[in-house]
Design a protein that fits this description.
single chain; Beta-Lactamase; Rossmann fold; 4 domains
Length: 514
Amino acid sequence: MSASCRPQHSRAESEAIVDQAISAVLATVDLQAVLERTAHLLRGHFGETRVTILRLLEKPAGEVEVLLVDDPRFPGSEAGSRFPLAGSACGEAIDAKRPLVVDPIDSKAPGHREEAFVAPHGYSSLVTFPLLFEGEPLGALQVAHQPEAGLLSCCLHTAEKISRLLAIALHNSLMVEEVKRLNRLLDRENARLREELREVRREARYVAESPAMREVIERVRLVAALGTTVLVRGETGTGKEGLARMVHDFSPRFGGPFVAVNMGAIPETLIESELFGHEKGAFTGATRRKAGRFEQAEGGTLFLDEIGDAPASVQARLLRVLQEREVQRVGGDDPLKVDVRVVAATNRPLEKMVEQGTFRADLYYRLNTFPIELPALRERVEDIRPLVTWFLTRHAASMHRKPPEVSEASWRVLEGMGWPGNVRELENYVQRALILSPGAELVLPETERSAPRPRASTRAARPRSFETEVREVITRALDASEGRIYGPDGAAALLGLKPTTLQGKMRKYGIKRV
């Protein structure tokens, strides 16, 4: 190949080079690939040529960055280097927004910084094309050459067309980078908003004014960050699923799915398919493969409510999942690895069920790795007022009305009711009272528990204060148990209370162990 720009190139050949450059620009948004392909086309067409492509920098202003150098006489890339526009041919062409031709180069008195660099390598001419997109400069294309018939006569027109294509490629690359930058900002903002929502959700999950509930929340915080299996115990209506969601929200899995399954609500013939999935044709009606709840909860938390209702066949398979972290679909042969955190809940006496043989002992010990006991509402009377306030606010908002005021007499009635249905019963009762209270004050519905109790006989001894009676009862129990709280002979068992509940009452009334 001649070392000069060959005048014998036909117009068709020049147009073919431009067409190939167009194809390179349209084929990809990878700027480096476009630049390399374009430089290769220029050198293949014009002979021994130095091609330099530069990008105009915003910061610091007044500088350009070398994106690519293709020079057979001086191998070794200068990509990534920067230099100021002042005193350069690149700067002059960008300022004028038109090509700048230096032909020939005066090696003894170069007028631009680039001339001093290319002249020692035998190049006698230099042309700089500003890369303009919609009139705005984005960079420059520089071609150093040693033409026999003059650069302008054979190279300038084709190279200028290619410079326009390079400007489009550079603009596309800048737009892609901007979209990526905006996406990164959006991702960070979404992550921040998700974290704020997570904080609101997990902090508002429970009203925890009482010592007993504060202790429960503290246990959730301790275990949530780990992958430990959690067993939530408590009466019906105490909010076991809400506590399971709190464990999920506090854990690193909060971005994953939370899947809840009520073991007592699924027919025994379908429960294995629901939990572990099934293959097509596994049984009559299985017309397609189905993923089970364990697969659906991948990367998140699976909540198994009413675990005490699980059939014996399911208990064995659950144990295998907890031990091996893998499931096998009904009708399938290959086990599937699953990454799922299990939180189970029950209001049934699993210990007695183990003794009776209706619940597997090994599964019980697996589930009972970290038990959390939810106190009944009657054992945390301090939470009734904030709970009622919360329910009134939420349900009044759904009715587009202002929450009514609650009189002190109504508060005393609410706090004196037993609430066997716990928080769920309280919420339903408050919602019913709200419907029946169109005025500014809450009117409590008449129920057997809220009706006034008959007065005691006037001949009966006058009772002491509630606080005094409670202190005496707890103190007598501690004396009888020699200060022990836990165990079958402990004070909690003597009083028929849970140990955590007794400890909360001792803190409340300032009672210390004997």
